[in-house]
Description:
The protein is of the alpha/beta class and 386 residues long. The chain has eleven helices and 14 strands. Pyridoxal-5'-phosphate binds at residues 62-64, 88-89, 91-92, 134, 160, 162-163, 184, 186, 196, 198. Pyridoxal-5'-phosphate binds next to α3 and α4.
Amino acid sequence: MPARNVSMLDLRREYELYRDEIRAAVDEVLESQQFINGPWVARLEQAVAERTSAAQGIAVSSGTDAILCALMAIGIGPGDEVIVPAFTFFATAGCVARLGARPVFAEIDSRTFNLDPAGLEAVISPRTRAIIAVHLFGQCADMDPINAIARRHGLKVVEDAAQALGAQYHGRAAGALGDIACFSFYPTKNLGGLGDGGIIVTSDAHLAALCRQLRQHGELTRYHHDRVGGNFRLDSLQCATLLVKLRYLERFTRARQRAAGLYDRGFARGPVVSPYVRTGHTHVYHQYSILADRRDELMECLRLRGVATGIYYPVPLHLQKCFAPLGYRQGSLPVSEDVCGRVLSLPIHPMLEDDELACVIEGVAAFQPTSQTAGNRPAVSPCAAS
Ligand SMILES: *Cc1c(COP(=O)(O)O)cnc(C)c1O
């Protein structure tokens, strides 16, 4: 097997496929000179809403702003608590804190990396207003029990679906599983733009109207501000190019799923734990994240073979410095902490070739985490030669 450098993502290889279409779309916007609120915005909103079977889409400036705007529409503010998983990208909790509310961290299921419904009720208080369920790595959180708990306590459910466009949960799409959902078009996401971008989708007409208003400084009619919003608009250029890339999403998702299937088979007998996909869930593999003992050594072995890896995420949110005033400490959320120490994401993207996938599988298989017997230092490096 010839050595290859396998990267986590290869956007340049992808670009070869749609260069001409993207350039034509950019040209169309340039010729129109309608950079803000051009017709591409509504077209993208409709296309994404249709895909997620939500009634409406509201394109916004980033996935983070989608969460912020959705929480503003729900009316989250000082004194409120919002439940978020401790293991997710920072923005999920950061947006809660920015509104003066308190993020309350909940434990995850170590097999799916998503909110564990079993732990939810224990962290609900009279101040709890909402739950943000993250569909981490491209698999939906277990939404039926989460929604049932939310209904019992009168809470809103926000989906942070930034990594999960196209994912399904018992036949329903990510984005149609809670009260309101947030997607990101950050360039590395499954549908990425030419810069920052995001979208909110919802079938709640009231929340949709509020989001539209908040996106444009709380204006209901020009220069009349009913509430304080922000500039959360998404540019015409981004919308026009995202419409092109959306045409490739299904094909790219299938390529990710195929790669994941090859990895699953390759790792069936260890030495790492493949992602666990729950029955009735369709995973879109934004990341292919394994659990590995001696994770950092495995990472180094793979690096020596030219295989890139990533740690998403090395620090659980309750232990982030900025949240120290909330009073959590090491041991507060042991499952999330343990996962942060063992999780490792392998290269997965639509353009991976079979010899690259084989290279990753061989690299992982060659790793010998058990070569260290009790009391003995390993005689050989855990990175066996190929
Ligand atoms: C990427 C991401 C976000 C934020 O999206 P941006 O577009 O980068 O602002 C929020 N939550 C999760 C889970 C993400 O992966």
